[in-house]
Amino acid sequence: MYTKKYLLFTLVPLLTFTAFGQQSTDATLNSIPVVKPGATLVKLPQQFAFAEGPAVDKKGDIYFTDQPNDKIWKYDVNGKLSLFMNKTGRANGLYFDKQQRIVACADEQNELRAITLKKKVTVLLDNFEGQKLNGPNDLWVDSKGGIYFTDPYYQRDYWQRKKPDMKGCYVYYLPKGSRKAVILDSTLIQPNGIVGKADGKTLYVADINDNKTWRYQINADGSLSNRQLFAAQGSDGMTIDRQGNIYLAGVGVTVYNAQGVKLGNIPVPSKWVGNLCFGGQRRDLLLITASESVYTLQMAVKGEG
Predict the structure, then answer these.
(1) What CA–CA distance (Å, rounded) separates 192 from 153?
(2) 3-class DSSP state for residue 5?
């Protein structure tokens, strides 16, 4: 999700798509089994301040944020890009619930919000035990309508406060219909990307500052147990496909299989990849929000959800 961490990578040389560079990139893509053979990155014709938080609706249309500019954009199944909403509460991470509402981490007021496709906004959560949240960042909604979300602290220039109210950065669960979130893990340094499996049994959380991604068992009551190290790599956002492969956003997109074995890295010609998700009519189009740019890539696998 949108952080200032990506600024650390501004000195990393960007991939130059010379004829040789393009051939090298294509060869790398073709070596990754989840990428459709012969597929190449396609850049959307629009510049953003920092594109983030993509989420897919039931039709396959993808919505994503330009967090610094306080906008949500829509990329539909026909390849049309359009502005969906201005003044989003500084929406960052997004996810669609079963009611086809966009559930948004909105850190202007440090809230979770639900936004209908007619742009009606409902605040779902605005505090934890009377304290202001750090700044909800990324989320995943389970089949029961419960919301798992991460709450790292990244100082924003539009805040008056200069330090957090909370003592730490936690992973939370908000049961459907509840106004009270529950802390699930208080031991991470800076939890950021989060995604769960469609069967509701497994949750993945990236600790971006500890450079680790953790796997948890989801219990019947929504709580977590049996935390295990999935990969010795953190990430910003993440997504999952139907084979259980996990995609970690950061310097390019790093793909791990369900057992935590690295399958390869998709090189992306941007400073930093914030997030990604599968969309399209067949859910086999990977949309990558990469700082100032957004890319699509045809895949040989389909996304969950």
Answers:
(1) 10
(2) helix
pLDDT tens, residue order, the chain (305 aa): 555 444 443 333 333 333 334 444 677 788 899 999 999 999 999 889 999 999 999 999 999 999 999 999 999 999 999 999 999 999 999 999 999 999 999 999 999 999 999 999 999 999 999 999 999 999 999 999 999 999 999 999 888 899 999 999 999 999 999 999 999 999 999 999 999 999 999 999 999 999 999 999 999 999 999 999 999 999 999 999 999 999 999 999 999 999 999 999 999 999 899 999 999 999 999 999 999 999 999 999 999 86
Total Cβ atoms within 10 A of residue 301: 18
pTM for the predicted model, two decimal places? 0.92
Give dist(CA 255, CA 242) in Å, integer: 13
Residue among 242, 266, 245, 239 at smallest CA distance from 254: 266
Structure tokens at 72: 């949500």
> Tokens standing for 171?
């992973």
- Return the H-helix or E-strand segment holding 267: none
Alpha carbon distance 119, 102 (integer Å)? 9
CA dihedral for 36, 40, 44, 49, sign (positive or negative): positive
Query: What is 55-119 written as a DSSP string?
Result: EE-TTS-EEEEEGGGTEEEEE-TTS-EEEEEE--SSEEEEEE-TTS-EEEEETTTTEEEEE-TT-
